[in-house]
Amino acid sequence: MPVSPAPIPCVGGVQSAEPCALVELSGENAYAQEWFIAPKSAVSACEDALVVTEHFAAVVDGMSSPLRDRGQAPSGRLYAETVAREIARLEPNVSARRAVDTISQALTHIRPDHAGPSGAVAAVYSRARREIWRIGDIHLRIGDRVVPGEKRVDQAMTLFRAAVVAAHAAAGESLDALRDQDPGLAASRPLLELQHHLANRDAAFGYGVLDGSAVPDCHIEVFPVAGAATVVFASDGYPGPAATLACAERELFAAIAHDPACIGELAAMGKPLRPGAETPDDRTYLRFDPSSSYAGFDTERES
């Protein structure tokens, strides 16, 4: 039985306070086994998005820059909603390359008014092609194979941030105070201000992102799913792509209990659990059966 917190469609580009979930419930979509999307707190807009249609399934994660000044709107939600709508509109037989180009073109009008990284990452399942396409760091589980979502530039920043906070803690500062102040994030500002220069670059520490610029082939990962009985997509609000939603939730909250400052097992979050928040980051989980029958398997494919 699919699990969903009352899926809310994204309509007309208006940003709702509810999570963005484009889920079409029908017999053709019985391949989707369970899904869940939630913001990090009840008062924050969720910058993740979820798509389940007859032809595509996707998890999208809008990037939220920590460098926004007071009054500057976050751009991650708009990127995520736009990407989700474009995925739902794709032709069933479209190639990964054409799909990414189409989505990127739809994002060119977005102009963030804040410094730091922006855009969205996504994992998309094409039922017609029996392929997963990944741009960025969405976690994947394909059968028994786990493919973590990782970006070298994020690893560099999050480990540095964690080390700075850990050093302050070792010097005697309380973790509660450090969670509020997050000196590690402040120390990471020079990298965050420059990170966008690495977006969609085939270079050391370069990374793929859907931000309106051209995504090079090296940052479009394609995974066949032939033979897999189940696939999981999880945004980086989870430590990894657990086999079930219940396991994902249990693992996340156990880790939060042990590491609320996110300097140990949750260092990859890159931010602490904030006061009043349920989790350090928005989170989205999707599990589906790629072997489920699909009328479009005989659709002529675009090269």
Task: Provide structural commentary.
- This protein is an alpha+beta fold and 303 residues long.
- It has a domain at 20-148 and 208-250 and 278-298: PPM-type phosphatase domain (Phosphatase 2c, domain 1, 4-Layer Sandwich).
- It is built from seven helices and eleven strands.
- It has helices at 76-89, 96-106, 152-170, 175-181, 183-187, 189-194, 245-258; strands spanning 20-23, 32-38, 48-52, 56-62, 120-126, 131-135, 139-142, 145-147, 221-224, 231-234, 283-288.
- The strands form two sheets. A six-stranded mixed beta sheet has the order 1-3-4-5-6-9, with helices on one face.
- A hairpin with a 4-residue loop joins strand 5 (120-126) and strand 6.
- Helix 1 packs across helix 2.
- The radius of gyration is 19 Å and the shape is globular.
List the helices and strands and how they pair.
Layout: E1 20-23, E2 32-38, E3 48-52, E4 56-62, H1 76-89, H2 96-106, E5 120-126, E6 131-135, E7 139-142, E8 145-147, H3 152-170, H4 175-181, H5 183-187, H6 189-194, E9 221-224, E10 231-234, H7 245-258, E11 283-288
Parallel strand pairs: 1-3
Antiparallel strand pairs: 2-11, 3-4, 4-5, 5-6, 6-9, 7-8, 7-10, 10-11
Helix pairs in contact: 1-2
Proportion of helical residues? 25-40%
The CATH topology name of one domain reads Phosphatase 2c, domain 1
Alpha-carbon Rg, integer = 19 Å
In the CATH hierarchy, what is the class of one domain?
Alpha Beta
Largest sheet features: 6 strands, mixed
- The termini sit apart by 36 Å
